[in-house]
Design goal:
mainly alpha, two-stranded antiparallel ribbon, 15 helices, globular
């Protein structure tokens, strides 16, 4: 991966973090908001003496989505624009993953090429992950349940074969197939978790699942909260859930990146999912944008869902970032 060198000047520099959609519209203005995009671009370049406009690995990932060699020339043009905009300044993780830090790149094109070359779609094996056999009464399973098709295929029997087949297929598709993620999200939000019981499964598996519910419980029980109530509880919700698999104290990068994704599962913040556009993979990258912008003076995004979730998390964790769209950013300097 492309390395970046930092120095005292960059460590204390003021910066504006631009979401990828904003960079895209600066380069190729929208038909319906062309003048806004042009005026915004002009303002940004005027402000480069005062602020840095860094790029990040999240921008690289955004541009690499659905990349194929025939797009090489267009991608190269986009990266040249990013290089001109950023002056080869990037934002990454500090040593403890607590705060973003600015550094200087050698080449954005090399960074992109390295990411594309090293990116792997290795699918993990889920065999031997469920060493039990459970018979499910299919008359009680809705055809909307995420596991309905696989349960029907195996006549209601949950076994290692059933689970490994389900998880393998899910892992291969959930990051890019919006319908798969949407189905699981809606099932989680509509389920009455107070009625969940694991009494009919082996004792050791029951203990493991009860532990899982213990850590996830505060989040599930917040589904009827309003935004103010959720904000007062969020630190405890996130700490309880993420401490299941992570040591305390939790890293700030985890609280913002994975916290952003967790927040999307909440009824107050769920994004509209569109085929080929808003997918789980998009949401994961947006979480990275949220972290990299957390020490910026401004975070500019044209996506309302991104702005709402980032603003919520910044307020919870005391990050002093002004989250705005292009028009709002321009109003700050009018």
């Amino acid at each position: 991966m492309q390395t970046a060198k930092s120095n005292k000047e960059l460590l204390h520099a003021r910066y504006v973090y631009l979401d990828w959609n904003v960079i895209k519209y600066m380069k190729d203005s929208r038909p319906d908001k062309g003048q806004l995009d042009i005026d915004f671009k002009n303002l940004v370049f005027k402000l480069k003496h005062k602020y840095k406009f860094p790029c990040s690995i999240a921008h690289i990932k955004d541009r690499a989505t659905r990349y194929s060699p025939e797009h090489k020339n267009r991608v190269q043009q986009d990266l040249e624009f990013v290089q001109q905009l950023s002056d080869l300044i990037c934002v990454g993780f500090d040593d403890k993953n607590q705060n973003p830090v600015l550094g200087k790149l050698h080449s954005i094109q090399e960074w992109f090429d390295s990411y594309v070359i090293n990116y792997r779609k290795d699918i993990p094996s889920f065999e031997d992950s469920f060493p039990y056999i459970i018979n499910v009464d299919m008359t009680k399973v809705s055809d909307k349940h995420p596991m309905y098709d696989i349960l029907k295929k195996y006549n209601g029997k949950i076994s290692d074969v059933t689970m490994s087949s389900f998880l393998q297929c899910l892992y291969e598709t959930i990051f890019v197939d919006a319908s798969k993620y949407k189905n699981i999200r809606e099932h989680a939000q509509n389920m009455d978790w107070s009625q969940v019981s694991f009494s009919e499964i082996p004792a050791d598996e029951e203990a493991r699942l009860n532990k899982l519910l213990f850590h996830l419980g505060p989040f599930l029980h917040s589904f009827k909260d309003d935004k103010l109530q959720l904000k007062s509880k969020w630190k405890q919700i996130a700490e309880k859930w993420f401490s299941l698999n992570n040591p305390l104290p939790l890293q700030k990068s985890l609280l913002l990146i994975q916290g952003y994704t967790l927040l999307d599962l909440h009824p107050l913040f769920k994004e509209k999912l569109k085929k080929g556009k808003n997918t789980l993979d998009n949401i994961l990258r947006d979480g990275q944008h949220c972290f990299f912008a957390s020490k910026a003076n401004y975070f500019v995004s044209e996506d309302e869902y991104t702005r709402n979730k980032a603003t919520f998390l910044y307020e919870v964790y005391g990050e002093k970032v002004k989250v705005v769209d292009e028009s709002g950013f321009m109003n700050c300097f009018s």
